[in-house]
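Weekly modeling sync, notes
Attendees: AB, CL, MP (scribe)

Item 1: holo prediction request
CL wants a bound-state model with pyridoxal-5'-phosphate before deciding which constructs to order. AB pointed out that an apo prediction alone won't tell us much about the pocket. Agreed to run with the ligand included and paste results into these notes for async review.

Input as submitted:
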Amino acid sequence: MKQQLLRNFLDSRTEPVCAYVYDLAHLRRRAERLRQALPPQCSLFYAIKANSDAPILQALLHRTDGFEVASLGEVERVRAIDRSVPIIFGGPGKTDAELEGALQQQVMLIHIESEHQLRRLDWIARRRHQVADVLLRVNPAQLPQDAKATLRMGGEATQFGIDQAQIPAMIELALSLPGIRLKGLHLHAISNNLDAQTHLAVLTHYLTLAETWQQRYQLQFEWLNVGGGIGVNYGVDHAEPQAQFDWERFCNGLAALIATHRPGYKMIFECGRFITADCGYYLAEVTDVKTTHGKHFAILRGGSHHFRLPVSWQHDHPFTVLAREAWPYPFARPAVQDAPITLCGELCTPKDTLARDAHVARLRAGDCVAFLLAGAYGWHISHHDFLSHPHPERVYLDG
Ligand SMILES: *Cc1c(COP(=O)(O)O)cnc(C)c1O
């Protein structure tokens, strides 16, 4: 199915191929499935920084409960496809103009990352004769032991959120400001977590924190935003499909957790990677194959200026080879057979390496490689104009 989709695309092109291909039908099905599995007290938002292309947002518009953004530019991207879909607005560096713009664009919630940000929002909202609905972003004092394996934004010193020790004072301040309505808390402290049990342990901790403060201040929060951070396994064992985060198991555990804690508030998930990674492929044609110092290298029409993810994460990205038979030259085709090969881009830097020593049955100049799981944090985190090569095609297949 997946192979067929890419094959059809490839057969429609004659120039050296360099393209992002997104499968919108798959994306819609995936979002629906993820959302339906969640307990009814939970909303699924899409964190658009993972991939903010209009066709992606359009596909997710009625298949998620809304969008999480972290700049006014992102607010505008969402508003360009829908005037009223719920938006939640985070980020440690919101300027006055962004806070003002967010109020003007009627965002549903603003996540507050510091005392200064809270005071500025109150000041701006009052001037506009508005009241801003906010969640306080908490940097928890600690996280469960298991959560240490993942990338972390909290449970240690970071630029994100408000130190747990300062939350009581911040709750009191928020309650005293006429331009602010406190709706609950926001916790997004881990990223790329692959284990459902670990995620449940982290959420249990979040629920406990929320309960403590609700009791202490006789509050009833309306929302607890438990963040995103559900991971994608980019492992490269080609023999077997990689084990991905077990969403069904997680949702069952979450239902049990909700039954025990009986929180009066609703929960928000704001996932990026887990929603869109699997719907995108980055295709690059092999323009050359060579051997130096006993190692095989394939050079691609493309590279990290289009797809920075493997370099950024320092991993070898999974890919599949799409053979192409056309060969226009009257001389032999450089090829490697049944051997490890390193896939490099067209940039003049040794950092432009997307997979190292990956075993291939055969790879020839003129073949194409398709990097998998490239739908999130691919094109959108890359330095497109470094070395001034042409940009990849960006193709959104549907149906
Ligand atoms: C980036 C981000 C997300 C999404 O993270 P994923 O790992 O893509 O799920 C969610 N919430 C906040 C606050 C973020 O910064």
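Recorded for review: The chain is about 30% helix and 25% strand.
Action items: CL to compare against the apo run; MP to circulate these notes.
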